[in-house]
Amino acid sequence: MSNVLTNLKPRNTNQGGDGRALVELRNMTLRFAKQTVLNEISLSIPRGQSLAIIGESGCGKTMLLKIVAGLIRPTTGQICFDGTDINALSDVEMTKLRRKFGFVFQNAALFDSMTIGQNVAFPLVQHSLASGREIDQMVFDGLAEVGLPETVIPKRPSQLSGGMRKRVGIARALVLHPELMLYDEPTTGLDPIMSDVINELMISTGKNKGVTSIIVTHDMKSAKKIADRIVMLYPYSRLKPGESQVLFDGTPDELDAVKDKRVHQFVEGEAGERLMEMRRESAEGMDGGFSETPMHADTVAAKDHEKRKRTGQRPE
Amino acid sequence: MREPTFFEAIFEWVSTWGELTIDAMTTLGDMAIFAWQTLVWMVTAKPCKGTIMPNFYYVGVLSLPVVALTGTFIGMVLAVQSVEQFREIGLESRLGGVINMSLVRELGPVLAATMLSGRVGSAMAAVLGTMRVTEQIDALVSMGANPIHYLVVPRFLACLLLIPALTIMADFMGIVGGYFFSTVVLDIDHYQYLNNSRSFVRGWDFFLGIFKSFFFGAIIAIVSCYRGFHCQPGAEGVGRAATAAFVISFVLILAVDLMLNIFLDAFYAAVWGSSLKLI
């Protein structure tokens, strides 16, 4: 077990990977005005590894994922993809690099104005990687891979169930054969069977294609099933001075043996003292880390990112 | 709780207004950069495939009935409003000149733009706001598309090119509506009405109205897309973005209209050296 309460150096936990780091976060910090979302996070993710990031709502998991995808710039620190610092890249270089990423959004984020076929074909058209019949065939193959029939191609996203939309989102992310897949709460809101279907898809993508995966999830069953390695983040506002935001970094087996009460409570899904803490914080007028919903943080982050981009501001 | 002292109250007032001013200036600067980026993308890259026609159809074709109806009523209302005053001074035969001059210079472009900022601008802000809230804009970026190029440029082009076309439609329908109402209902002589219209309304007046509508189109597109891109989360956020898009567009349309009128009239006087000769 590796409980890294004080270790801030990049870890190189090689479970399931081939040893070479595909993604490396170095002392990465993200702040919005006076609010610190992520503080001095350092992680090294080897090629081929499936890493699950777990933690309470509002602890910055989704922000971390969006930073890796280059959708948000961190306030300080470096993010390296295959040895390249992505914050140092120009827009054109970043666009090229994004071909190597596949992002599955929490609610699939399919384009309402397009059909399912057009949604899956979008990255191919955008990067001009195929044309005409080739695209049709790749869309058909991509949907078949996630277990969806040809009949969904002319439908609109609103005509599909939540599970089907998630699978279309995965098909769209996989159509460019990415090296890195980023999943934002892929099983949230799905029934247990559909959750397992998505889990199996993620496992087969990782194992059969050798794709490196980062999965943000609350679903412990999924995390233990699909991940080679689990990292648990804790809300920065509730850490003791000097503590690392990474409460746990190890294999799923090691997670069960961890002594830290906060990790144990999260894994077992027990409110415990947290309920009393929240009531006390509410009475004292504190936000308890819940006042800013992840979506709101996301909007603020996107705005902040756009401003930085427009003004050419780089991380400090 | 202790009452604030006089100086504390003054400090609080200055601080609140200072914060509001800084926010307003930041938003204005932000919007200017947004507009600049849109222009740069528009001239440096071809519009994305499949984005132009749906936007042109929505802005142009679907707005046609409502703009035509607005124009017709403006013409008729102008006739009703002006006829009594002109009759009192015995100048009802000059009604055509007044109605058509007001229409093509001012009311046609401004009211058509107002109608379109409500119909088109609010819808744009709501669509883009929903895309922001449901992470569709992030999805675009993650797949290598630039959201300004993909989403804003086609909408900007549609508003820039089609709002002037719709203004011509509003002018035409207003002229027709005013003519029929004046001659059929108010019993003004056909010949006098048309003759006065022809002698008072100059090509410059048409040009002025159409020229202004290019600016109105650009304002509607930029403000609406900007508000959509900076939408707050949830249904309330999308609703606010749509409302703000309309209100800000409307205020800017009126402000820009005033400035352009002053500038263009001064330009006309400097080049041709004559003033308006309405009566």
Structure report:
The complex is a heterodimer of chains A (316) and B (279). Chain A is α/β, with parallel strands linked by helices and 316 residues long. Chain A has a domain at 21-82 and 179-311: P-loop containing nucleotide triphosphate hydrolases (Rossmann fold, 3-Layer(aba) Sandwich), CATH 3.40.50. Chain A is 38% helix and 19% strand. Chain A has eleven helices and ten strands. In chain A, the strands form two sheets. In chain A, strands 6-7-8-3-9-10 form a six-stranded mixed sheet, with helices on both faces. Chain A has a four-stranded antiparallel sheet with strand order 2-1-4-5, with helices on one face. In chain A, helix 3 (116-126) packs parallel to helix 5 and helix 4 (132-145) crosses helix 5 (162-174). The longest helix of chain A is centred in the middle third of the chain and has 18 residues, at 192-209. The two termini of chain A are 34 Å apart. Chain B has 279 residues and is mostly helical. Chain B has one domain. Helix content of chain B is 85%, strand content 0%. Chain B is built from nine helices and no strands. Chain B has helices spanning 6-44, 52-61, 64-88, 95-133, 136-142, 147-185, 190-200, 203-229, 234-272. The model of chain B has no long low-confidence stretch (mean pLDDT 90). The chains are: A alpha/beta (316), B mainly alpha (279).
Summarize this, please?
The complex is a heterodimer of chains A (316) and B (279). Chain A is α/β, with parallel strands linked by helices and 316 residues long.
Number of strands of chain B: 0
Number of strands of chain A: 10
Largest sheet of chain B: none
Give unreliable regions of chain A as ranges: 1-12, 287-299, 308-316
- Tell me the structural class of chain B: mainly alpha
In DSSP terms, counting alpha (H) and pi (I) runs of 4 or more, how many helices of chain A? Answer: 11
In CATH, what is the class of one domain in chain A?
Answer: Alpha Beta
Q: Which topology of one domain in chain A does CATH recognise?
A: Rossmann fold
Order of helices and strands of chain A: EEEHEEHEHHHEHEHEEHHHH
Q: What CATH architecture of one domain in chain A would you give?
A: 3-Layer(aba) Sandwich
Q: In which range does the helix fraction of chain B lie? A: over 70%
